Q: What sequence folds into this?
């Protein structure tokens, strides 16, 4: 089977007003793999992943130049359906952020905003989505309790389930484990390895061990530039760029 | 050095705090001492359960005025809640910075207008309008007119508190919703408003308390007839209006009955306050 690349950027530049946050980034993310983005704090990792579902649109003064292609389509083309884009490329945030609603309503939220209101359909989607993140057995009797009562790990799983409920094909994750303890982190990593059979996953992480463990490809960024991008094993064992070598060797924070 | 300063400052602050509490206490005791005897003599249930208010004949029943205060307060909310919450949602979620810079101070300015001016404008414009277009027993001086006047008056309270409540909703909720493909409007109604609802409710209750407590503007537009209203176009008298209108000439039992009216008012406001505390406490516990 030919490789496909559902996420691509071409000479992507992003400015927060005058601040040049992404510099000429060109990269392609392979389908149904986990791709990690690493780099020191402030190098533009979050900015880059937020480009793919146009979340930077919500930031006043953010301006994009260059092309961003999701499943081959330019997402800044005038006929882009933002809702459709965000259904295709879902996002998991750094801090688990269930809505202040019940567990059920959290998972049913996406389908509901996309027009699904039939109860039996919603029940099915909620069950399936919670199954996919292994929360169903734990929570099936507590579906109408507030989601904010869950543990951080459960909350992050719930956020992934909430996303799964809108049936995306791509999952963007911005440091999804940084608010979790090591055990919860390893559980989420296991989950990612299951999910990657069905989804293309792009994950930002501060944790290089995590990148090395879970990802097939790794991108290293520095000061808004994509310094090096390639197979994870190769990046960690034989980085071509000196800056990558220094970062992996522990020179930058 | 710091320690000695603390030793001086803390008792002073304590004295100031005590003073406010004492003032509240003294007012409360005073009203109860003045008002309770007549209330007990007439009978508490008779006092609040009868609508015969004939002070010169010794008949003190304030039910009509309790109903008057409540209907006006509810009418006020009917006007002010959709306007106020709508305005708050616009300011907090949709308006550009420039629009906010113009609208928010204007609404705050409403708060600075003396209530007698509201009453005056009500008499000049709303009363004749109501009389001509709706008629009714109150000839324009009625519950609806008072609700409009008060509705505009309590708008700043509801808008202010609702905007604060909406802006206290973490951005992550909005981002989470938008990232799922929800529109701005869906995000607002399905997540942001739900997350802010206890704060907004607190603002609404406070607005209601203000409406019940307001006196001058109401007297001017509500007609002040001591009767049980049958329609929103009837004139009513409120508890505050009763005190203000009659205190000037009341003596003896009559005067005491006005204090007793104050007791009832105080209890109503205290109930609303407790409700606010209850509503906001639940919000804190949830997060
Ligand atoms: N809304 C914004 N307005 C202005 N500048 C911003 C904004 N968001 C981010 N920046 C700047 O853009 C740069 C990249 O930010 P970004 O959040 O993408 O970094 P990051 O690599 O995700 O960092 P971290 O590892 O700390 O999350 C930083 O220098 C940051 O200060
Ligand atoms: Mg980041």
A:
């Amino acid at each position: 089977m030919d490789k496909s690349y559902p996420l691509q950027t071409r000479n992507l530049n992003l400015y927060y007003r005058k601040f040049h946050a992404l510099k000429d980034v060109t990269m392609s993310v392979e389908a149904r793999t986990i791709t990690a983005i690493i780099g020191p704090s402030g190098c533009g990792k979050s900015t880059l992943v937020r480009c793919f579902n146009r979340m930077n649109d919500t930031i006043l003064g953010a301006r994009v130049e260059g092309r961003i292609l999701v499943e081959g389509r330019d997402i800044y083309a005038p006929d882009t359906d933002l809702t459709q884009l965000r259904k295709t490329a879902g996002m998991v945030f750094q801090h688990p952020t269930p809505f202040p609603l019940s567990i059920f309503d959290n998972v049913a939220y996406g389908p509901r905003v996309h027009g699904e209101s039939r109860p039996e359909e919603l029940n099915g989607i909620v069950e399936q989505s919670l199954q996919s993140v292994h929360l169903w057995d734990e929570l099936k009797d507590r579906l109408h309790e507030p989601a904010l009562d869950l543990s951080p790990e459960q909350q992050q799983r719930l956020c992934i389930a909430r996303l799964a409920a809108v049936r995306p094909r791509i999952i963007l994750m911005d440091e999804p484990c940084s608010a979790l303890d090591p055990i919860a982190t390893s559980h989420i990593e296991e989950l990612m390895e299951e999910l990657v059979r069905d989804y293309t996953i792009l994950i930002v992480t501060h944790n290089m061990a995590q990148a090395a463990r879970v990802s097939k490809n790794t991108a290293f960024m520095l000061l808004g530039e994509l310094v090096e991008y390639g197979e994870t094993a190769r990046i960690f064992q034989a980085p071509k760029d000196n800056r990558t070598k220094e970062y992996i060797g522990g020179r930058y924070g | 050095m710091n320690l000695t300063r603390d030793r001086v400052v803390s008792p002073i602050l304590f004295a100031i705090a005590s003073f406010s509490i004492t003032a509240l206490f003294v007012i409360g005791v005073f009203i109860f001492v003045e008002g309770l005897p007549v209330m007990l003599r007439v009978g508490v249930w008779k006092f609040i359960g009868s609508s015969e208010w004939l002070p010169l004949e010794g008949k003190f029943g304030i039910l009509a005025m309790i109903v008057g205060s409540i209907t006006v307060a509810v009418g006020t909310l009917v006007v002010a809640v959709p306007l106020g919450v709508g305005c708050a949602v616009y300011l907090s979620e949709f308006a550009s910075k420039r629009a906010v810079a113009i609208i928010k101070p204007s609404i705050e300015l409403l708060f600075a207008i003396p209530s007698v001016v509201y009453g005056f404008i009500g008499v000049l414009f709303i009363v004749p309008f109501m009389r001509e277009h709706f008629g009714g027993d109150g000839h324009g001086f009625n519950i609806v007119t008072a609700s409009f006047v008060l509705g505009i008056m309590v708008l700043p309270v509801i808008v202010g508190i609702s905007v604060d409540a909406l802006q206290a909703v973490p951005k992550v909720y909005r981002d989470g919703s938008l990232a799922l493909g929800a529109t701005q409007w869906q995000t607002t109604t399905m997540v942001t408003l739900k997350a802010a609802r206890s704060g907004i409710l607190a603002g609404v209750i406070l607005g209601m308390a203000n409406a019940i407590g307001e006196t001058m503007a109401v007297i001017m537009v509500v007609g002040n007839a001591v009767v049980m209203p049958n329609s929103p176009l009837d004139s009513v008298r409120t508890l505050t209006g009763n005190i203000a209108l009659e205190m000037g000439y009341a003596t003896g039992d009559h005067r005491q009955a006005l204090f007793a009216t104050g007791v009832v008012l105080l209890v109503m406001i205290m109930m609303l306050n407790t409700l606010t505390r209850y509503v906001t406490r639940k919000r804190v516990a949830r997060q």
Summary: Chain B has one domain: 64-286. The first strand of chain B starts at residue 53 and ends at 54. Chain B has eleven helices and two strands. The mean pLDDT of chain B is 91.
